Amino acid sequence: MKKMNTLLTALAIVITAVTPVTSSAVSATPDRKSQITLTKNYASQYTITLPDGNVTLDSEEESVDFSINAYLEYNEKLDVSVTSANDWKLMDSNTANENGVTYIMKAGENTIKDENNKVVSVTSENNKNDVTVPLTFCDFGEAKYAGTYSDTLTFNVTKETVSNEETTPTTTDATNPADTDTDNTTTSTE
Q1: Is residue 26 a part of any domain in this protein?
Q2: Based on the structure, what is the number of domains in the chain?
Q3: Over the chain (190 residues), what is each successive 10-residue block's mean pLDDT?
Q4: Does 35 reside within a domain?
Q5: CA distances in angstroms from 7 to 3, 17, 68, 91, listed in the order given
Q6: DSSP code of 74?
Q7: How far apart are CA 88 and CA 96, in angstroms?
Q8: CATH number, domain containing residue 87
Q9: What is the CA radius of gyration of the chain?
């Protein structure tokens, strides 16, 4: 039995010595490089906060806040403009257009007019900053008749790519209809 154990041990040593050693590791040669490319996407996005649905005008001058927070790509610009459904008049549904009450809307210190209806511009230069602009309604005309007068305002958002010269914050008109995204939000004034 002792001879059998000795023989088996000797056989095991021989088998182990004959078995080639393999490894899953790959040896690198000195002139070979390995590279990894890391990619992370930061999406262009913006949030616009408008007054809640209806604004009741109780005094001769009423202000509400409009705010925008934008995170834009390099050389992107957001322009926010506004249009009036009644050509900047509060209208009573029972009276004709000539009986509308004219008013003025200001965005900050800038008066909004049909030819320059810009509320605010945000560029990639002032990224991730909350921009708040007071919207003021004032200089109301006189109503010919008693009643409830209203107008609907539509806010348009245009996003575009601009050249390096145009990336400073501005409130002047500059839109490119060929390269724009537009969102509409409506707020009524009564």
Answers
A1: no
A2: 1
A3: 52 50 57 88 89 86 92 91 92 78 93 83 81 93 90 93 59 33 40
A4: no
A5: 6, 15, 87, 112
A6: T
A7: 15
A8: 2.60.40
A9: 35
